[in-house]
Amino acid sequence: MVTRRICGQASTVSNPHYDAPVRYPVEQFTAEERAILTPHFTNLERPVFALVNLPETVKGALFARYSRYSGTVRRLYLEEFAADAPAGGRPFDEEEGARAAQLYERVFVGYGDDSIAQVGGAHVACEWVSNILTKLLQRGRLAAYLEQSTRYIPYDQPLPGGGYRFYRDEELGSEFAAAMDEIFAIYSRSLTEVEAWAAERWPRGDGEPEGPWQRSIRAKALDLLRGLLPAATLSHVGIYASGQAYEQLILRLMASPLPEAREYGGMILDELKQVVPSFVSRVERPDRGGEWISYLERRREQTESWVSRLGLDRRGGGEDAPSVELIHVDGSEEDLLAACLFEAASAPETEVLARIDVLDRSERGELLTALAGDRANRRHRPGRGFEALRYRFEIVSDYGAFRDLQRHRMLTCQWQRLGPDLGAGVPDEVREAGAGGEFERALEVSREEYERLVGAGLPELAPYALSLAYRIRYTLDLNAREAMHLIELRSGREGHPSYRAVAQAMHERIAAIHPGVAATMSHVDTSAEPRLERIMSEIRTHRRQVRAAEQTEAPPGLNPLG
Ligand SMILES: Cc1cc2nc3c(=O)[nH]c(=O)nc-3n(C[C@H](O)[C@H](O)[C@H](O)COP(=O)(O)OP(=O)(O)OC[C@H]3O[C@@H](n4cnc5c(N)ncnc54)[C@H](O)[C@@H]3O)c2cc1C
Questions:
Q1: What are residue 62's phi and psi, to 5 degrees?
Q2: Cβ neighbours of residue 431 closer than 8 Å, sequence gap 6 or more
């Protein structure tokens, strides 16, 4: 029975499939077979069931074999897998290593392809990782990630073993630790100051409960000061991913120039060897993982050498302002309309496009509105036709906003190494609270330590020293469907003003080129607040300067509809 709420009324809807006459074969099992199957299948009668109490690698092997087996998966389990299971029904968790490895090898050798490692997964927690490493962990996209929030957690508390929460490495030297201690000390002092200011600035309303008000004041103070925290700040990340995604993750970490990444790559591998050993067995084979890692390292070195040869590695001369530029567009609103109609039509896409071509402007507008549908909330998203349009944005924002936007997975995010050249902003409210001078001093300590590390021949490690308020340049390359999701979600007033400003600016840029598409994004929150307004004004000023410099109507690839 499923309880569903319809138009405010609770109504009980019986699941019709359970009571319906059987329209599919129901397999018969003996009592002995049922005893073997019951611990591992959530039912033995229906055509939909879940696999439980089986190691991930066994489930992977079972599904891999399934693709070439004419019977059902329960029968397959009985015929080919049950004999390997320990007696008593309870699964092979402790012995998974040897048993599952044998099963996996047998199936993999016989039927192997990479997809076997897609059908089993594991939860892994990576704790005390720097804000640089969190981005590398999440770079793969084909997984689920949860990360500790700098908006809800104060970083003024010491680590369990003492000292502030930042990444430490002997190679970085004692000067690094001293600089980080100073920044965190400023953060701690400023937190008290800014919180007191916020409590006065937004006093508790009549009848407003004390607890929620206090939490909102704290959140405001944390939001305003998060820009102080250095990229070395430690966080926790929870990951749920398939074996295949983990293999890629480990290879990527092992090939990284960052010692922290290589160390965590090794630790993730060690833990996965305990729970899904076969899925990651290729990593340590010199002829597989070894060569793969060498390929990734060589590829990076060659890219860097070409960047240097082309003179593109010179830093400095940055524009000390946030910006959001739409640097390339693929497709027109007509392409989107045709793609939206395509699946319901029976004609080739060229014919669909020709038919759209004769519609006048208002008919096209009406059609687009109808195809987007009545979107009661932002989760009601139009179909795949919206994926026919693609936008490439180049963004300069503070590292804090980048960190949050980078986590969207249905897009391609590419980012440059964090440096101080693009400047950093101090929130006006922090100045109003009287902590502006201290904030600036922390930024200076951070920049000086960055420069010291670069001077000491450690350019890869130097970004650890930089505060999240420093800006970074990155691209977000995404289709119109994902743009709708990202812009509507990230413009929401519960979000941080620096990424809200980026989302609103992205919407403005899309509206300038595809007004109809922008109008379908009906849940964009355009409300403002002082900090957001200031960032938007900086972004718009930058835009005007770019246009003046370009003296052109549109950058290459843009196709204004007029
Ligand atoms: C105000 C705010 C605060 C937040 N705070 C935190 C926080 O403290 N900690 C934290 O960890 N996260 C936080 N998040 C969410 C986090 O940043 C999300 O990872 C981010 O929003 C990107 O994920 P997404 O699913 O929204 O979108 P995308 O990754 O862009 O994906 C787009 C859509 O694709 C689908 N999709 C993508 N990946 C999968 C998948 N693996 N499985 C199934 N469907 C998928 C979903 O439909 C998804 O909506 C916060 C978000 C907001 C707006």
A1: -60, -50
A2: 439
* CATH T-level topology, domain 323-433+468-550: Gyrase A; domain 2 (3.30.1360)
Equal CATH topology for 123-309 and 323-433+468-550 = yes
The atom of ligand 1 lying closest to the CA of 496 is 1
Is 153 near ligand 1, meaning CB less than 6 Å away?
no
- Helix ranges, 235-280 (H): 243-254, 259-275
- Taking the model in full, what pTM does it have? 0.90
Q: Tokens 């906003």 belong to which residue?
A: 401
Residues 241 and 252: beta-carbon distance below 8 Å: no
CA distance linking residue 272 with residue 121, whole number of Å: 10
- Residues whose CB is less than 8 angstroms from the CB of residue 433 and which lie 6 or more positions away in sequence, other chains included: 190, 193, 194, 196, 197, 198, 224
The finding on whether 146 has its CB within 6 A of some atom of ligand 1 is yes
Among 374, 406, 378, 391, residue whose Cα is nearest residue 333:
391
> Does residue 410 have its Cβ closer than 6 Å to ligand 1?
yes
The Cα 106–Cα 410 span in angstroms is 35
Q: In 10 A of CB 474, how many CB atoms?
A: 19
Any ligand 1 atom below 6 A from CB of 494: yes
Q: Map out the domains of the chain as residue ranges.
A: 19-119, 123-309, 323-433+468-550
CATH code for the part of the protein at 123-309:
3.30.1360
**Contact at 8 Å (CB) between 467 and 226?**
no
Task: Please answer whether residues 280 and 60 qualify as being in contact, where contact means their C-beta atoms are separated by less than 8 angstroms.
Answer: no
Q: How many angstroms does the Cα of residue 182 sit away from the middle of ligand 1?
A: 34
For residue range 17-61, list pLDDT tens digits in order: 555 666 888 899 999 999 999 999 999 999 999 999 888 878 888
> For the segment 325-363, what is each residue's pLDDT rounded down to a tens digit?
999 999 999 999 999 999 999 999 999 999 999 999 999
Neighbour count for residue 362 (Cβ, 10 Å): 8
Token representation of residue 263: 């160390």
Name the token pair of 112.
């192997």
Determine if ligand 1 sits within 6 Å of the CB of residue 149: yes
Q: Which run of H or E residues covers position 235?
A: strand 234-242
* Residues whose CB falls within 8 Å of the CB of residue 492, separated by 6 or more in sequence, listed in order: 500, 525
278-297 pLDDT, tens per residue? Answer: 888 889 989 889 999 999 99
Minimum CA distance residue for ligand 1 atom 27 = 408
Q: Is the CB of 168 under 6 A from ligand 1?
A: no
The per-residue DSSP string of 69-105 comes to -SS-HHHHIIIIIGGGSPTTS---TTTHHHHHHHHHH
